Each structure stands twice: as C-alpha cells, then as structure tokens.
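Morning!

This is the sequence you dropped in the shared folder:
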Amino acid sequence: MIRMRKCSVSRRCDVRNIALVAVVGVGAVALLGGGCGPKASLGDRAVIERAQNLNAALQPTVMSGNAKLSTYVQQVGARLVAAAGELHKERFGPQSHFREPADWMFAGSVKFHLLDSPVANAFTTGGEHVYVCAGLLQRCKNEDELASALSHVFAHVYLRHVQATVGTGQVDAAPGIVVRRFVAERYARPLEDEADEVGLRTFVRAGWDPSRFADYYVRVAGNEQRASAMRQRVAKLPPSTQDLYQPPISDDARFALRKQEAQKLAGRRRTSPSEEARPEVLVNAFPNCLGPEDLPEQKLAQGELLRPAFADEAGSFDKGPIRRPRQ
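The structure's back. Tokens below.
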C-alpha cells in the first residue's frame, strides 16, 4: 500500500514550493509534487485542482442523508482503487502511462460520490473524484454490475483519459464552462475500449465475478457490439482468475436494500430556475460512457447547459463575461 509521506516538525515543506505554485499557476494542489504527499506531474495537479473546484459545485447533488449508503459506495470504489494499485505495480497498461508519477491515484484520496440524479450514468472529472448517479444504482441488479461500471470509470482516471481528451487547462473556469468542455470533447471510441480492458482487469483483480462483468452492458439498448466484445475478453481470462474471487461487500439481498435506501433519498434537493450554478444540470449533462449514446435526460441537460444563463459565466480562458441576448 502506498502511504502519503508526512512532513515532520523539523523538516517542513520548503517555501520554495509555494513560489513554484505561483509560477505555474495551478494552485496549492501543486504541493503534491513537493515534499508533502504523493507525487504528481504538473498536468495531473492541474486536473486534480480543476476537479476539486468542480466537485464543490456538484456537492448540492450528493446524496449524503444516509451514512451507510455513502460508505458503501466508497467501499466499492476503494476496493477497485486498491486492485488498480496492484496492477500499476505490475506495470499493467500502456507504457506511456508510466512516464508520470501516479502515486496520487492510490494514496486513499479518491472519493466516490452517489449523486441524486435519475440518469443511468457514472463519470469522473479526472482527478480525485468519481461519481455514480442514483439512476445507475437503481438499474444495476447486483453489486457486480455497479463495480463493473465504476471499474470502467476509474480506468479513465488510471489511463489519464481526461488529461488526454479535455486537457489540463481551464483550472479556474466556471463549472458550466468546464462541463461544456467535457460534453464537446468526450472520449473517442478507442479510449472507451481501452477503459473496458483496464476496467475488466481491475474488476477481476478486485475479486468480483468475471462472468457478471458485461451483464449491465448487455441490457443497454444498442450496446450489443460492445457487450459482445466484453464477453470475449472475459472468455479469454486465464482459469487462475477464479482464485481472485472475494465475496461482494453486499450480497444480492443487501444490495437490493441499498437501492431502496437510495430511492428514499432521491429527489430531496431541487434547485430553483434562478440559481446560477444549477448543479443538477451539470451532473445530468455529463456524457454517457456506459452506453452507445447519451440518454434523453442528458441531451436535455446539455441543451440547458448551452443556454445564455450558463454562457454568462466567465472562466479563466474568457476575456470577460459573455453577454448574449436572451431568447
């Protein structure tokens, strides 16, 4: 297990690290590459900080009314992260992935959040935050399906797909501008295939049943080709992978109870049309990487995201607020 290094009283972080932060302009999170905490490249630090800023905007949608439910989602995610850390030590994945330090991914700082959204989706903003919508939890029949979806999403973190697709800039941009960037760029099909492969290996190493890995994708309309490719990957796994099996955190009966608990919390927080941030629109607008195309709720939110009310937000790459005539 990779541990975060602590600064002793007699050996505090050098003030030159603070000066470095000012020079590169990526904020205090740049200290991750200094004397304190796990190492991260400048590009990773920028993405981590941008994700942290966006997480603050999405917080109103987090389902926090049930501590056991929140803990459960985090436990599933942490089990996947630990498995990915083992694969990383074995240098699994494209060699380009190992050109930059990845300690920050496995230092216990990645948070998995359950969001109050009816959309069957899960996504990451590329840093230390992974999100699963309540709509996806309700559609999963068991923990294996939930873990399968989250393993795919964390694979995007592991492979730095956000850095490659959305880029490392716009750290201080307004939330609406950042999410529009995710909608406009989205992952190319080869990256989704790569995340499926790494997600499968992470899922198996974490101990869930390989035969259930593709089950969720089989039920998604129009996803037949992808589900078939997943099943072919599963069929090629060596017999020794069966030895990695561990019982789920929640068996099928307990998982059904988790879904009921989430259903009771759904819809408790609603924003008014006058709110500038409209966090539920930001959440619903994120592209769907678990299916062949965005769902109707996502397309509706993406259209809302492009309305002038969101365009009024100024970001770090804007010269000033955009003032467009309202329709």
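Headline: Residues 44-311 form one domain.

More detail when I'm at my desk.
O.
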